[in-house]
Structures are given as C-alpha cells and as structure tokens.
Amino acid sequence: MEVLKIATAGSVDDGKSTLIGRLLYDTKSLTDDKLEAIERNSKKKGYDYLDFSLATDGLVAEREQGITIDVAHIYFSTKKKSYIIADTPGHVEYTRNMVTGASQAQASIILIDARKGVIEQTYRHFFINNLLRVKHVIVAVNKMDLVDYDQQVFEDIKADFEKLNAQSSYEEQEVTFIPISALKGDNVAQKTDAMSWYTGDSVLDFLEALKPEQEELTAARFPVQTVIRPKKDEFHDYRGYAGKIYGNSLKVGDAVTVLPSLTSSKIKSIEFFDEQYDEAIAGSSVTITLENDINVTRGDILVKSDEVPHSAKTLTASVCWMDGKALIPGAKYEIQHNTNRVLAKIDSIENVISTDYSGEDSSATQLTLNEIGKVNFKLSKNLFYDNYTDNKAGGSFILIDTQSNTTAGVGFIG
Amino acid sequence: MSKILKTNALESEAIYIFREVVAQFENPVLLFSGGKDSITLVRLAQKAFYPGKIPFPLLHVDTGHNFPETIEFRDKLVEELGLNLIVRHVQDAIDEGKVTEETGKYSSRNMLQTTTLLDAIEEFKFDACIGGARRDEEKARAKERIFSVRDDFGQWDEKNQRPELFDLLNGKIEIGQNVRVFPISNWTELDVWSYIEQEHIEIPSIYFSHKRETFVRDGLIWSASKYVYREEDEEVLERIVRFRTVGDMTCTAAVESDADTIEQIVKEIKVSTISERGARIDDKRSEAAMEKRKQQGYF
Question: In this protein, which residues make up the domain named Phosphoadenosine phosphosulphate reductase (chain B) (predicted)?
C-alpha cells in the first residue's frame, strides 16, 4: 500500500489535536478502547470536550504538563493509502522537533486559527518547510465556524500568506489553502455545505489525491550500507552492494562511478531478495552487483558516471542546532553524510536567523539550541556532496558530538 | 519489457534499518518472541542480507509460561532457516534469587523478563537488540526512536532522545550502552498482517481460531492453564478463540473468533473496533504501564 508521510505543527490552541482526532475518527482509525481511554481521561481532567492530545502525548511528563515534548507518530489508513503523521509542537523551543518531523515528510499541514490569522508560528513553520523543501504544503484555516464561515476572513488570511510565499526561494513548492472546522468536521474528511463558496477538496480528499512520487527527480545516488558476501559455494565470488536508491532510478547496464575512489564500472544486476530486476526506483532497498571486481565499501556512493557531484574539503550549510551545548567556531564534530562519516571543524558562523524570521544576525558568535544559521565547515578529508536544493539525500547531513555521541544538529548544504 | 521493482515503502524502510544495524554495530541480536511481529522481522532480515544468511543470532527470553505452540513453531523456524538461537530462561533468574515470582490474581512473569534480557545483553555483550515493537501499538511506544539508546542499566531516557532526521541513523554509543532497534516502527497491525498474507509467512497456530479452555476476568478471555492463577468462582469454559497478540499465557488474552485463515484475520482486523493491545493484560496495570517498563529496560 502507498504510504504518505505528513508533518503537522502548531499548538493545541490551533486545534491541531482536534484535526488529527477528526481524521482518525472519520476514517474509523480510532478503536473503541482507545476512544474510551480518551473519554475517561478527558473527564478525569474535567474537560467538556474530548482531548485527543491525550492519545498522542504518550509520556507521563507530557500528560502531567499538558504539553507535547516530543514528536508523536500517528497512523491511520484509508482504502487507498497508509498515512503517517509526525505531530510536532509549534513553539520556538521545539524548532528541532519541527525540523525532525519535516525531514521525513512528503507533505505538511500548517494550521492557522481563522480568528488570529498569520502569526509568528506560521512564519516559523513555513520557513522550515521551505528550508527542508517539503513539496506539498496545506494551509488549513481552522475554526471557520467561529467566524461564521466568512469567505472574506479566509481570503484575507490567504492573501497574507501569499505575501509570505512570494519571498520563498522554493518556487516549485505547492501551497494549497483549505478552510476547515476541525471541531465540526467541515472540510476535514468530507466537504461541507457550510462553505459553498469553497470549491476545492477537503483535507483528506486532497491527501488521497496526492502523488508524492511526482516530486521532481534528481541525480541518482546509491550510498552503500554494507557489502554482502555470502561465503556459500554457489555464491563463491558474489559481492553485492546493499543500499537504498535516492533520486532517479538505476538500471542494469548503467555506467556508474564509485565515490570517492572515482573508479568506474557498470551495473551488472539489481537484486531484491531472490529476484533480479532491470530497474529500481527511488526508495528501493536493493542489492547491486557490478561488472568488474573493484573495491567498494560502506560509505562509498555509486552514482551515474555523467552525474558525479563535486567534491571539496570545505562546505557551507544551513544548520539547525539540536543540542544544549552551543555550536561555536573551532569545535569538532563528526559529520554523517549518507552512510559516510567524516570529521569536521566549525570554521565560522556566517549568520543566525532571528527567531521571528525578520532577518539575519551576521554578528552571532554561536548557534544555540533550536537556532538555524549558516555555518562554514572544514573537513578532514575530501567529501563528494550535492547542494540540498538539487538533491536532498546528497545535500543533507547530521552532526554527531564526538564526546556524547548525540545527534547535535542537522545541515542542509548550500 | 523491462522488469521494474515495485517497492513497498515500509518493507524497504525496514530492510534499510537492518542493514544499518549490521554496518554500525559489532554484536547485534534479534529479540524473538515467537509472535507475528518478530516472525515478520525474521523474514525482513532474510531479505535484507540475501543471498547471505541472517548475520546475527536470535534471542528468546523464555518466561516458561509460553504457549507450547509458540515454542514448537520457534524451533521449526530456526531449523528451517539455519538460524542461531539463544534461549535464556526467566526461571534461572528466579532460581538464582535475582527476581521474585509474583503471586496472586494478576501474577505474571512479564515484568521479570527485563532482568533476564539485561543479563543476556551483558553475557553476550550485545550492542544492538532488534525488536518488533511498533509505534501504533501503544502511546509510549509512539515516542520511540528507530535507534533507541539505553544506558548500561538498560534504561530508556525518554525525555532526552536523539533526533532522527531523514534516513540518517546515529548508532554511536559508549561501551556498556546498547541500542534497541525497531525496524517496523512505522508499521500498523494491519500492515503486519497484510505483509504476512502477501508473503505467505507461516505463523503459530494460536493466531488462528481454535477451541480452548478459558475463563473470563475483567471482560477479557484468559487461558485456563496451570501457569495462570484462577479464583474458584472463575468458571472454565471451552470457547472458540484466537490470539491477536502473543506474549506469554499470563499476559495475553484471547478474542472470540472463527477466523482460521490469514485472509479472514485481515478481514477481521479491518473491521475490529478494539485495538490489538486491548488484549494485553500487561498494559492494563496503569496508564503508564509501558513507559515504566521501558524505563527499566523492557524492550
């Protein structure tokens, strides 16, 4: 079945939990025992309505404080698709969670309270969707019931958002506006009669019709995860390179170059379990064998010989910082780029984006938790990489703290 | 006509995760319970490393209160695929006095498994334990990472988890720490059953409708067995049941069902209004039962 990964961000006040609850409820994805648990706990807390966040705030600390600390994953399915929602809190102190959610998403839902319009949180969410180049963005203008389903309110918010969108550097991004009432279910899973002036799809209909595979395809990248050598008599000389394909598909017979050694070969076979194929598309975890016996190990990347990316011992990237210990010039981190790891030193910080996204601070000397800024790195050895705008897999990396081993940040090259 | 691979996104993701485990860790192990999720993991691992063999052993933490059908199935699978199976017994930890057997109406060895698991991790120096937990099962599990770091006491620090971005999995740990890995995190119960149907994967007979001596407590159907504490007024009746989830006898409730093929099971689950873990007695102890167990090192 087709899987669609969606990211949502926003606070409880926007009705995000209600929207998710609605989607679950209307697609009959909420089982009786889970619904009863929500009813029981909502009543216990003295609420007049069902608080769906009680279903997603899975940790004791979250339920105690009534806040979402961490990304929650919510699953529902229709006859057509399986949906995975990464539900993230929208406040500035959760920027890292929003970035994490958006990094997995093929589509994103930005909620706006019809009474409040575009607010700082909207900017933040949209900026992150831009930076991460999430192709499909749904702007759901919620609580339309509280503004008498007034078309003008919706149009005004749309116009405000379009102004924001006009500054976007990601022209191919598709932004869709839908007026909804999550509480009443208007335009969530079904179209409503309450807003006859709206001729578009409901949120669910829109998601059902989405074809994420139509996303513009880029140069094929095949980072090698591990080498399969069966050491069985019938596979005596077998060397299969296991990995996942990113970008355009790979075909048997394709001339390929191995990075970083720059040795060349041809694809002899593309295998998945006990079957051989002529071609495999992006997202396929396959095993590839090559015509000649060359040295390939984990961390190497197979690319088509006419699509070799550039290489350098330096790189510049937008970094979202995710660690309590600030990023400062001179510090060393390990960069994990695809399946490869290389030591990197922070050369300088070019700028830090201000939290209200009104501008950049180029005098900043550090990047602290949840901040996004442009950082220059020096690398311990040559790295072949893409710009993130050209190729997501080849243009992204994480920074690993060499002492604590934690994932301290994420970088988008370019 | 050229033959193009049709990719199943969830399967591909799981295979990718298995390969990262083998590449990033020295001594991984697959936690095998004999339930449908761990059986699915075995199939995925087979695919990930074909034509090579599965490059890690299986570990079964045996409570001694298993359904005999599960053990029979486990041994057959291991034999057929030529797998390396390690079994460690909760009974040994009880005999050594490390843990005390629970007594009374709701007694179970479910909680005691954690000690045996942590001992086995130490004994074999496992640095990655692959498990079949899914995020849709339970709300604390919904917060799990794919690579979930545990300290040398096996504890889960749920408030301080590593961010996971794109496909970039960070398996770097200190000596003594270990990582719990969940390749089917993003699968739902229905995804697992559909996969079992599509792949013709064999599963233990207790998943299919059968006659069983049972009694009803708290609205759940319990197996009548010498391992399961029963009050005198809890009347044993033969019922037509099957199991939706398989733990040991003391913590898994049956459901009334006549589904005796995978096809019928899939149909049944599609219309079911009760969640899978609704039949898990171990989850009913409190609102935070799973989170508490995970903090202590449960998988």
Answer: 27-253
Q: Which residue of B has its CA nearest to A273?
A: B47
Cα B92 to Cα A240, A251, B84, B249: the distances in Å are 42, 54, 21, 19
One domain, residues B67 and B208: no
pLDDT tens, A119-132?
888 888 899 999 99
Sequence-distant (6+) residues with CB within 8 A of B220 are B253, B279, B281
Nearest CA in chain A to B195: A1
Total domain count, chain A: 3
Give percent of chain A above pLDDT 70.
94
More confident residue, A304 or B176: A304
Chain B residue with CA closest to A340: the answer is B168
Facing B23 at nearest CB: one of A75, A225, A278: A225
Chain B hits for A271, CB-CB cut-off 8 Å, are: 50
CATH of the domain at B107: 3.40.50.620
Query: Quick one: A19 and A56 in the same domain?
Result: yes
One domain, residues B161 and B222: no
The answer on B175 and B97 residing in a single domain is yes
pLDDT at A4: 94
Q: Residue A281 is encoded by which pair of tokens?
A: 């598309």
Q: How far apart are CA A43 and CA A354, in angstroms?
A: 41
CB contact under 8 A, A96 and B163: yes
More reliable by pLDDT, A91 or B33: B33
Query: Is a pLDDT exceeding 60 seen at residue A215?
Result: no
Tell me, yes or no, whether B197 lies in a domain.
no
To the nearest 10°, report the CA torsion of B205, B206, B208, B209.
Answer: 120
Given A214, A239, A263, the domain boundary residue is A214
- DSSP of B13-30, one letter per residue? HHHHHHHHHHHH-SSEEE
Average pLDDT over residues A209-222: 80
Q: Are B241 and B182 part of one and the same domain?
A: no
Stretch B133-152: mean pLDDT: 87
In a shared domain, residues A315 and A299: no
User: CB–CB of B184/B141 below 8 Å?
Assistant: no
- Which residues of chain A lie closer than 8 angstroms to B165, CB-CB? 99-100, 103-104, 396, 398, 407, 410
Print the domain residue range for B70.
9-191+288-295
Put simply, the answer to whether A238 touches B186 (Cβ < 8 Å) is: no
Say what the ipTM of the complex is.
0.93
| Final residue in a domain of this structure, among A214, A245, A265 | A214
Q: Is A101 within 8 Å of chain B by CB?
A: no
Do the chains contact at B166 and A229, CB–CB below 8 Å? no
Peptide bond into A212 cis (omega under 30): no
Chain B within 8 Å of A343 (Cβ-Cβ)?
A: no
Indicate whether B225 and B173 sit together in one domain.
no
**Domain region containing A358:** 310-413
- Does B171 share its domain with B25? yes
Same domain, B179 and B151: yes
Query: Angle formed by the axes of helices B9-24 and B36-49, to 10°?
Result: 70
Mean pLDDT for the stretch of residues B187-211: 95
pLDDT at A35 (0 to 100): 81
Cα–Cα distance measured from residue B102 to residue A204, given in angstroms and rounded to the nearest whole number: 49
